[in-house]
What does this fold into?
Amino acid sequence: MKRLRNIKIVATLGPASDDYKMIRALFEAGADVFRLNMSHGEYDEIRERHAIIRQIEKDLDRPIAILADLQGPKLRCGKFGDKKIKLKEGQDFRFDLDEADGDKHRVCLPHKEIFAALKVGSTLLVDDGKIKLQVKECGKDFANCTVLVGGKISNRKGVNVPDVVLPLAALSKKDLKDLEFVCELGVDWLALSFVQRAQDVEEARELVKGRTAIMAKIEKPAAVDAYDEILAVSDGIMVARGDLGVELPVQCVPPIQKRLIRGARAAGKPVIVATQMMESMIESPVPTRAEVSDAATAIYEGADAIMLSAESAAGDYPVEAVTTMNNVAIEVEQDRTYREVIEASRKLKRSTVADGIVSAAREIAETTDIKVICCFTQSGTTALLTARERPSVPIIALTPLTGTARRLCLSWGVNCYFSDTVDRFKMAVVSAARAARASGLATEKDYIVVTAGVPFNVTGTTNILRVAPCDERLIFSSDQ
It folds into this structure.
């Protein structure tokens, strides 16, 4: 099953996509990675979906990545005696730690950490930013506010504090339990919600203990400010535009998206663009023209993946949503302008032998009649560096490690194949030629570029490149 595009598609599973038939249909329509949203679903449901994905992987003999997305610390107000009240612009309103039911004058905000961090002038947003308040007086257990934007507020609505770095642990008690569950289950990526600083990622890494790769979700202004530090300690990035668009003015999101994508690309780390990509397809079989343009923009920017949330998890048209994403990606990547944009945005700092090898592989492939770049990789680093180059020819990653193959399913342009362990470069070339032919990306008459590290099976030793024929007889007749 050969994909006709380089960008990958992430599909979230949920009530609309929780059986073998539907999940396989999503994969065949174009989904490369499946997201398990830990904010919804019981453990038994998540375990069943995980098992179905692994069965499809076995049935189709194709590695499939699974991304578990932790809920993160949720900040919510308390309850109201009348269930909901209406706040008017200019009125006073108080948040405090009193657990009594709220009224038109006050409500409980059961998060003492917020009061510890608030300052006069700080902003509080309620219900996805629909209601906006400004702090005029605060203490260790209260905040007296002025309503700047009014509206109806009801029980347990979410609260955002955009201009303050909150002294909250990135992992709630639920997250700690969920983290251990999905790591034991065997997921390939773990997404951390509401990351504010690099330490949040480092704390999660200590708990993960190498069992999965870690993706930082950038959805807080503090995370945008500390992006370079967060990127340095993360394995991947998700541009989570939902909360980012609540805590920042919406017009700020597009330039931030571009900056985050370019930073991740330069670092050679996968980056996903998420939230409301095809939102209307929750209820409609076709997207809006604006949604198509939004998805296309992420593709032109060189993102590794674009993600569907409720569209595939709870929508009426999950397969159609994936199919639409797939078709948009194919069309965009066939556009001549796409290659011009990708090549113009390739600004890399090359400082290692591995950097030079993968750069040379791309140059050779693009200036001669090379069909595929094949890279042998243990940790996935060689494939990630090759993908960072955004070559105009397909990439095949060969690895004997199942976990590496699965994680690479998220990376731009990488076609993952399991290989036997090899200890001689000639056998690596033979395996690469066989994979290139089996994938349909090359024939016996074609040539490929093969990169690897010698000695084999040692992480971070990419140091050799060869242009080789796909015909095994010619490989064995050579002097090497």
Summary: The first strand starts at residue 8 and ends at 13. The chain has three domains: 8-72+169-334, 84-160, 353-476. The radius of gyration is 24 Å.
